[in-house]
Amino acid sequence: MSTDSLTSQKCVPCEGDAKPLTPQQFEPHLQQVADWKVVGAVKIEKEFKFKDFKEALNFVDKVGEIAEHEGHHPDIFLHGWNKVKITLSTHAIKGLSLNDFILAAKIDQLLK
After folding, report:
1. Which of 42, 72, 75, 112 is the most exposed place for a label (fewest CB within 10 A)?
2. How many domains does the chain have?
């Protein structure tokens, strides 16, 4: 599966009986999203650095638009005037789902 494959998919709501992905299940997806790091096997995060505050804030706005469109919302932390840390996890299942990797790929696509 390629990054294009992730970006062509749409996030879907998790059903109540859905289970979080295991490390063996999420590893192939992780390889498709550059520089995203797994934290505690329940979330992925990545830090982005921009030339100034305005560029960082513009990025946050674009991430918000994608998140709303996908119905999957990351934690967004704008700090140090030019850095943005994005953390993705599927809260409903208390772990990682395919949605997290779809959104990560779409966020990365913003900078291409």
Report:
1. 112
2. 1
